[in-house]
Amino acid sequence: MKFEATSRIFGDCTQNFKVTDFPETVKELVDQILARTNEWGSIRIDMGEGIGFFDLEEYEYRYGTLNDPIPDEQLAAKVKSVTANGGWTYMSYLIITEGGEQ
User: CA angle 4-71-32, nearest 5°?
Assistant: First the structure.
């Protein structure tokens, strides 16, 4: 997983990123996120339900541990694209699946 900055650094020291070189499935990507044990944040998954960003289920994680389970249907989905926002140790991810909207 690699991060390409897509914005300037904001006043709160966060930045937007396009994530590249990601694995094929959501499960494999979540495993890579959790392997970054110095991070905490959230994961949202767009499966193409036609709902807005803030209506997507948010799965929080802290230092290698997922706080809430992600349903198997979402874990099995194929990843189309990934964006992220964060800085220092916080990172928020938006995963768009093959059936997703963006």
Answer: 30
Q: In angstroms, how far is CA 23 from the centroid of its own chain?
A: 12
Per-residue pLDDT reduced to its tens digit, 13-39? 999 999 999 999 999 999 999 999 999
Torsion of CA 8, 48, 46, 16, to 10 degrees: 0
Q: What is the pTM of this model?
A: 0.91
CA atoms 37, 42, 46, 47: torsion sign: positive
Q: 76, 27 in Cβ contact below 8 A?
A: yes
Residues 47-56: tens digit of each pLDDT: 987 788 888 9
The two beta strands, 90-97 and 40-46, are parallel
Q: Which two tokens stand for residue 69?
A: 């389970």
End-to-end CA distance of the chain: 20
